[in-house]
């Protein structure tokens, strides 16, 4: 019923998205609408902002003075008309993977869905775990290791807020050697906290499975691996594997074919079939109240960086901000120039793809935060582990406002980072790349988690 309701919701809302799955459809779409990644010279932030403002799908990658734009032949024409000189950097393979064969209840369109895989085994595109599999995984870890793991339902996705029969719960896992009072939703917790969040951008598919592997590394390593044991004895590790489950649901079904859904699903009615500059939803990593709507955003509601109707307008944004406020005390003053004190506890990482970068606040400006020195030292250490470049977004990528890490640092003072994993240099890497990216980034995750007790002290 989930899928039928999901489709019905889209249709009822005037959906302009094609969700029909099948080899004929994907083949035809792929042939008639070849996608490219264009390399575009944008040496200055004003050029980057102009690309975004004009609604182009600017990817999270930079090479020297070049940025990268996803699109088709029409996109190249528009780029030229806007004064840019696009060069083809990559011709993308069709992304028409088949949707998972199982459903909560097989619907009329897929009567032969049985035998159903167990929910935890449900995958797409060669192994990527679906939302349902991710949630089954959280439940299994908590059931297998009740002394270590607790599942928390922290809210509802946009679709679920509209109709409880659709959409998803929003779920987190708390991992620690549990003692009385641990994993409680109060900022006065005994242990410091580290939070990892992934797949806020649905199409950054490698990131959710990094959370999966991180959870297994911790849950299976307790008592066997000294570093893991020490971490879970002293710290609460929170993992939100899928920040944007509605968007991931669409991605795992193969949509928004031939593009891939980045945003949540609030706001449907963009062009059908979708184009690179016409995608439904709100960019959840532009939607927070920190300098909302000021940089790296497009006011066009069908662009990939549409920040929403207002700050914190989206249920997914409000829910994760509420979770953060339940986990961390506000330890920083309200002014841009206020420093979080040396006694600050708490750290977070949000993982995106696919540049190979360790980023830290501020993202809305190249102005340094008052904790810049300590954040920069931590980012440099992360780079020692994963080999990525490090800096503020405006220093090595482009400015962006309303992001998760600007919000968690700005509102609460906790040490906050975005890792753009390298994703094997691919927009849609093969599943085997999750092993590569996890291995490369695990030491950086363990390092920042280990600093949660006092991130601004040497
Ligand atoms: Zn992203």
From TrEMBL:
Enzyme Commission number(s) from the entry: 3.4.17.18
The protein, known as: Zinc carboxypeptidase
Protein task: Carboxypeptidase that possesses the specificities of both mammalian Cpase A and B. Thus shows broad substrate specificity, being able to cleave Cbz-Gly-Leu, Cbz-Gly-Val, Cbz-Gly-Phe, Cbz-Gly-Lys and Bz-Gly-Arg in vitro.
Lineage, uppermost ranks: Bacteria, Bacillati, Actinomycetota, Actinomycetes, Micromonosporales
Active site: 420 (proton donor/acceptor)
Gene Ontology molecular function terms on file: metallocarboxypeptidase activity; zinc ion binding
Family that this chain belongs to: Belongs to the peptidase M14 family.
Segments for region (Disordered): 291-315
């Amino acid at each position: 019923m989930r899928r039928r309701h999901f489709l019905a919701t889209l249709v009822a809302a005037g959906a302009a998205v094609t969700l029909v799955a099948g080899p004929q459809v994907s083949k035809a779409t792929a042939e008639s609408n070849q996608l490219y990644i264009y390399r575009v010279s944008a040496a200055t932030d004003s050029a980057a902002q102009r690309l975004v403002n004009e609604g182009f799908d600017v990817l999270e990658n930079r090479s020297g003075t070049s940025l990268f734009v996803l699109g088709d032949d029409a996109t190249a024409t528009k780029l030229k008309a806007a004064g840019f000189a696009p060069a083809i950097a990559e011709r993308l393979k069709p992304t028409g993977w088949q949707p998972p064969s199982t459903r909560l209840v097989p619907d009329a369109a897929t009567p032969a869905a049985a035998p159903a895989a167990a929910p935890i085994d449900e995958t797409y595109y060669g192994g990527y775990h679906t939302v349902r599999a991710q949630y089954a995984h959280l439940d299994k870890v908590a059931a297998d290791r009740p002394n270590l793991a607790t599942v928390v339902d922290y809210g509802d996705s946009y679709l679920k807020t509209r109709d409880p029969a659709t959409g998803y719960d929003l779920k987190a896992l708390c991992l620690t050697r549990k003692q009385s009072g641990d994993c409680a939703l109060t900022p006065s917790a005994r242990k410091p906290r580290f939070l990892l969040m992934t797949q806020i951008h649905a199409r950054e598919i490698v990131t959710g499975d990094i959370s999966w592997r991180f959870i297994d590394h911790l849950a299976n390593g307790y008592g066997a691996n000294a570093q893991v044991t020490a971490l879970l004895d002293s710290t609460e590790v929170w993992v939100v594997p899928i920040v944007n489950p509605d968007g991931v649901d669409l991605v795992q079904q193969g949509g928004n074919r031939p593009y891939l859904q980045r945003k949540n699903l609030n706001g449907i009615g963009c062009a059908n079939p979708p184009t690179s500059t016409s995608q439904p939803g709100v960019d959840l990593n532009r939607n927070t109240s920190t300098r909302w709507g000021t940089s790296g955003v497009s006011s066009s509601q069908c662009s990939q960086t549409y920040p929403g109707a207002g700050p914190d307008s989206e249920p997914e944004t409000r829910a994760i901000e509420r979770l953060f406020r339940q986990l961390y005390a506000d330890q920083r003053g309200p002014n841009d120039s206020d420093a979080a004190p040396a006694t600050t506890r708490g750290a977070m990482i949000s993982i995106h793809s696919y540049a190979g970068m360790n980023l830290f606040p501020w993202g809305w400006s190249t102005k340094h935060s008052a904790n810049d020195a300590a954040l920069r030292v931590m980012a440099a250490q992360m780079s020692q582990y994963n080999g990525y470049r490090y800096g503020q977004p405006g220093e090595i990528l482009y400015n962006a406002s309303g992001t998760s890490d600007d919000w968690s640092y700005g509102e609460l003072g906790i040490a906050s980072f975005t890792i753009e994993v390298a994703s094997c240099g691919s927009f849609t890497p093969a599943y085997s790349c999750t092993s590569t990216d996890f291995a490369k980034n695990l030491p950086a995750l363990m390092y920042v988690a280990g600093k949660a007790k006092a991130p601004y002290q040497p």
